Amino acid sequence: MKNTSGQSRVAVVLYELLNPIPLGFFVAAWIFDILYLKTFQIMWTDAASWLIAIGLIIAILPRLINLAQVWITQRRLATPAVKIHFWLWLIAVVIEIFNAFVHSRDAYAVVPLGVILSTVVVVLLLIANVQLAVCTRVGKGEIA
User: Which residue ranges does UniProt annotate as crossing the membrane (predicted)?
Assistant: First the structure.
């Protein structure tokens, strides 16, 4: 099951299907952290903890597929934008692992470090996705 560029179709489908899901979980956790900061209702930080954990679990498979595609199978064809996207996602996942540990503490101990880490992760992931989209469109000649 290979296409003409050498990527497995199953890997491409799984990557495209699962890759956006963790971003949604992390953005929701960030919003819940902000809600906790404003209201000090413990349920917001508990929900944020679950969202971070589920987002990290779902992020494993797309990251492994991306690792194989960028650094092993498509090493020569990977553009700098794809490599930057990979590194920003990797940094964001590592920060989110630390954020999961912060969220495992008492609810009052989550503020402000948990909110700061959630904000950094969301910003990194948005930069990664926007730079990849812009560079891909420029590469195809859609944006001058």
Answer: 12-36, 48-72, 84-102, 108-130
Task: Copy the structure tokens of residue 89.
Answer: 């996602």
CB 6 within 8 A of CB 42: no
pTM of this prediction? 0.86
Distance CA 9, CA 111 (A): 43
Distance from C-alpha of 103 to C-alpha of 140, rounded to nearest angstrom: 42
Per mean pLDDT, which range of 20-34, 60-74, 79-93 is the poorest? 60-74
Check the CA dihedral 23-24-29-31 and report its sign. Answer: positive
d(CA 136, CA 144): 12
The pLDDT of residue 144 is: 47
CB atoms within 10 A of CB 14: 15
- Please say whether the beta carbons of 14 and 88 come within 8 A: no
Which residues are paired to 8 by β-bridges? 2
